[in-house]
């Protein structure tokens, strides 16, 4: 289904923040905001949920330390407990200091890499992905707010013009 | 302007009085003869402590041999002598650990304060007066530690074995270290370090107060420069101080990263105390402009430096454990054999607990969470100093009993009294610090 959206352009992040607050106050749903750089506090103004990436990273770290412990316990203690330079390989805890560097590194490795991959999956980023920005200028010096139109075009246009938009366009959008 | 509340003042006096009684009990109950020392150990045996019984039977074995062999007789009596010294050391070591612990908190805060000034941090100027209040304890605390060191040099106790001329005469290793470890040079070094720290503290505080009344930023700039200079002096003096005051209770042992390790311990305790005092003053309504973000930043420091401490602790432990060189590894052998619970308990308290508690960003803004973590961190770092001093001064006769708790209570009372008295002497918010506006609006 094709729907119409309104694109409001801003040339300053302060003005954009005010506009976002104004549009939220008027109870319109903001589809998307495109910015050339991170605008501090924009997520709060838009009322976006806080990210849960840090929680996933903690869990991935737990996976990492488990992998390291199970791996070394099996290899060094259970499978072939050799005497290597007099290190006590009778139980895991007795030889643990020697394993800590690996446990630490694998924890960091799992936490970091799996979190980055999670981020890519959740934000749909991959090589050869088709860029989604509606206007190339939004990667350089313009901010763009996108609002869906539900038979309230003129009302929205007035609101956005009042909020300091430098340019307002209406375009067709294919819903994905 | 903060007024020292009467309730807190009375509480600090009670702590000091109770602590003083505890310290006195410790000194009175310390044995003065070999017979008394043996009686104390024997009375512990009757309580059914299996470990003590073992050591007692070992003593018996020595005595049985003594009747047969004259050489063993000498060994048996030297064992009793050793036991006597350990028991006599107990109240002294308890006093020394607590005195050093609270002095080190003030010193750690001083280092943090100098770093904040030298780094021109924008968030912390609001807390400068709190830090200056805490560092005021450096004067009485440092002097007390110095007095204990002077008393050690005067042979009032056996904390530092290298101060005993008889021992040095029979110890080739200590003779080799005589150039560095001799009582006069030791006291001169201690005096220079304390003078340097106290001088910076007093001068920086003076400039900080003068800045409030002046029309330009010259005091602030001078404070910036002397803080940078102090940090250079501090880094060197703190390292040497840790060799002198702590590592030399075990003069046969040495470790290169020991200075850093002690630094990490004092730094994290200092930051924790800043957080606790700030939260206390804020709860009483004195620090209106301090917000959750300031507490959040302090908690982040507590978290990060706890990990840093663990990193240094583990680096020192693992390198020595791994290479297992006999002359180095005895340090950890005695600790793991005789101090198993405090030794591994402190890692749980100083690492696992703060890491799990303070990892969550939201928890770092919850005051009672920070207080809870802070109390555990402080107790953990007391144990850390305990584990550094006790094994070589009292050995397996250690116990956290009346002398130890008494000493902690006494110095806690003195610390609270001195710090909050200093806090009441100047307005809690600096007026003309160039970064004060940024600090007031600090938001994370």
Describe what you observe in this structure.
The complex is a heterodimer of chains A (176) and B (444). Chain A has 176 residues and is an alpha+beta fold. Chain A has 2 domains: 7-47 and 130-142 and 166-176, no CATH class; 53-122. Chain A has helices at 13-25, 42-46, 53-79, 96-122, 153-162, and strands spanning 2-10, 30-34, 143-148, 167-174. The longest helix of chain A is centred in the middle third of the chain and has 27 residues, at 53-79. In chain A, 14% of the residues are buried. Chain B has 444 residues and is an all-alpha fold. Chain B has one domain (6-34, 80-430). In chain B, helix 4 (70-118) runs antiparallel to helix 6, helix 4 runs antiparallel to helix 15 (367-393) and helix 5 (128-135) crosses helix 16 (402-423). The interface between A and B is small, with 6 and 8 residues. Chain A: The chain crosses the membrane at residues 53-76, 96-121.
The most extensive contact between chains is:
A-B, 6 and 8 residues
Mean pLDDT of chain A: 91
Report the helical percentage of chain A: 40-55%
Average pLDDT figure of chain B: 90
Largest sheet geometry of chain B: none
Please report the total strand number of chain A as a whole number.
4
Helix content of chain B: over 70%
Would you list the SSEs of chain B in sequence order as H and E? HHHHHHHHHHHHHHHHH
* Tally of helical runs of chain A: 5
**Low-confidence runs of chain A:** none
Count up the domains of chain A.
Answer: 2
Pfam family, one (chain A): ActD
Keywords (chain A): Membrane, Transmembrane, Transmembrane helix
Transmembrane segments (chain A): 53-76, 96-121
Protein name (chain A): Quinol:cytochrome c oxidoreductase membrane protein
């Amino acid at each position: 289904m094709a729907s119409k959206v309104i694109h409001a352009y801003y040339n300053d992040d302060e003005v954009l923040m005010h506009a976002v607050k104004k549009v939220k106050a008027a109870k319109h749903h903001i589809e998307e905001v495109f910015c050339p750089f991170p605008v501090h506090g924009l997520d709060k103004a838009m009322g976006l949920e806080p990210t849960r990436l840090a929680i996933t990273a903690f869990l991935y770290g737990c996976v990492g330390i488990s992998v390291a412990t199970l791996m070394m316990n099996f290899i060094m203690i259970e499978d072939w407990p050799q005497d290597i330079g007099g290190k006590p390989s009778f139980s895991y805890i007795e030889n643990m200091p020697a394993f800590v560097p690996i446990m630490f590194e694998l924890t960091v490795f799992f936490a970091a890499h799996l979190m980055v991959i999670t981020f890519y999956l959740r934000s749909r980023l991959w090589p050869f992905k088709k860029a989604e920005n509606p206007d190339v200028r939004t990667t350089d010096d313009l901010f763009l707010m996108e609002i869906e139109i539900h038979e309230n075009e003129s009302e929205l246009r007035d609101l956005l013009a009042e909020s300091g938009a430098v340019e307002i366009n209406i375009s067709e959008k294919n819903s994905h | 302007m903060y007024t020292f509340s009467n309730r807190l003042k009375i509480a600090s006096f009670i702590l000091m009085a109770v602590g003083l009684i505890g310290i006195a009990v410790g000194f009175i109950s310390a044995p003065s003869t070999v017979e008394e020392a043996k009686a104390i150990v024997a009375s512990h045996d009757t309580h059914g402590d299996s470990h003590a019984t073992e050591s007692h039977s070992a003593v018996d074995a020595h005595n049985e041999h003594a009747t047969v062999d004259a050489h063993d007789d000498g060994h048996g009596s030297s064992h009793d002598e050793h036991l006597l010294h350990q028991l006599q050391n107990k109240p002294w070591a308890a006093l020394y650990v607590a005195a050093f612990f609270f002095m080190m908190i003030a010193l750690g805060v001083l280092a943090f304060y100098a770093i904040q000034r030298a780094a021109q941090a924008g968030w912390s100027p609001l807390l400068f007066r709190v830090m200056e209040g805490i560092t005021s304890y450096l004067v009485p605390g440092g002097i007390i530690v110095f007095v204990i060191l002077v008393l050690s040099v005067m042979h009032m106790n056996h904390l530092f074995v290298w101060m005993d001329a008889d021992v040095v005469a029979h110890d080739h290793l200590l003779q080799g270290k005589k150039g560095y470890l001799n009582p006069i040079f030791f006291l001169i070094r201690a005096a220079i370090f304390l003078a340097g720290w106290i001088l910076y503290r007093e001068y920086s505080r003076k400039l900080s107060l003068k800045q409030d009344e002046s029309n330009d930023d010259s005091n602030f700039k001078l404070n910036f420069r002397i803080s940078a200079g102090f940090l250079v002096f501090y880094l060197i003096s703190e390292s040497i101080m840790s060799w002198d005051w702590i590592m030399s209770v075990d003069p046969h042992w040495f470790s290169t990263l020991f200075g850093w390790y002690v630094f990490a311990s004092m730094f994290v305790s200092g930051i924790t105390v800043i957080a606790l005092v700030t939260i206390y003053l804020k709860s009483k309504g004195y620090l209106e402009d301090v917000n959750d973000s300031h507490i959040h930043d302090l908690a982040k420091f507590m978290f990060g430096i706890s990990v840093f401490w663990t990193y240094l602790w583990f680096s020192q432990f693992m390198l020595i454990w791994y290479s297992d060189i006999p002359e180095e590894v005895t340090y950890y052998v005695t600790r793991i054999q005789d101090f198993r619970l405090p030794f591994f308990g402190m890692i749980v308290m100083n690492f696992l607990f703060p890491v799990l508690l303070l990892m969550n960003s939201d928890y770092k803004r919850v005051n009672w969470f920070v207080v809870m973590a802070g109390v555990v961190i402080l107790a953990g770092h007391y144990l850390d100093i305990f584990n550094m001093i006790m094994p070589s001064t009292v050995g397996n006769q250690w116990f956290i009993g009346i002398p130890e708790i008494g000493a902690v209570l006494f110095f806690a009372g003195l610390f609270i009294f001195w710090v909050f008295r200093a806090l009441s002497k100047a307005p809690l918010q600096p007026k003309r610090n160039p970064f004060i506006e940024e600090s007031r609006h600090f938001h994370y």
